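In this supplementary section we document a worked example of the pipeline. Step one takes a protein sequence of length 283 as its only input; no multiple sequence alignment statistics are reported here. Step two produces a three-dimensional model, which step three serialises into structure tokens for compact storage. The input and output of this example are shown verbatim.
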Amino acid sequence: MKNNLIKLLTLDKEIRLYIVDTTELLAHSNLKDIKTDFAKQLYKKIFTSCSLLRGFLTEKDQRLNVSIRFKPKGYSAHCDIDGSGNIHCSFSSKLKIFDGEFIDLTGEGASLSITRGSWLGGMFTGTVELKSDSIEHCFSDFYYKSEQIETIFRTWVSNGMVRGLMIQPLPFYNKKNLDIMIESVDNNKLYLSTGEWSKLQRNVFPCASIIEEYTLQRECSCSKEMFFGLLMSVDTDELKVSIQMNRDEELECGICGRKHVFDRSDLETIVEIKVGEQSGQLS
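The serialised model returned by step three reads:
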């Protein structure tokens, strides 16, 4: 599969950019289950915006979960991305058939949460309210409010193609250079949305060079061992309760939906390791 996510850095090293083509990915996604035109457009934009976030994952065991809860009860979207490039996005049953306007979904009670980390290194979550007039602005607001990083998102759905762009200035950037970059992107949106993929950097971003390329896919390489680390973060007493009740613990992969079951023997092994680590820290 071709590399469909590209990371660029301007020659002055002030701004990094990510551009993604999700056209083929969406053909094998849950988009087929979405019923209304509005919901389909929203799905494409959320899927594409989340695909751009793959560039922030530097290790294969890292994961990023995006949870969007809209104002009406029961309207939500969830997306999982891992460091291997696997992505999965789903809508709640009510959101699949929503046929209103975006402004009807945001406001008091609506939120965007992004959790990032690894099973062994811990997961960290940030949450902001949804008050913007587009899903792209909602993602921008998250990084501005949660991480104090100005981040600009653009998505384009045109002629059967779906692409997205994320612009993120680095510390000590020149505001004028960022404004010029944003203006250039907006002036070239036609080529960015439908132009030849291999020539985007040369034709639109001559002031930037490609520093990394990624492949996003719908397949998943999850394993029971990978989820072992997640259970290591569970409180030891909680695991002991499950052991005493002879209760299995079941963890579901957010990428592919595969379920991994940990029986009493597995849990006893985890508790033994955790107790041994705690004893080593005390000695």
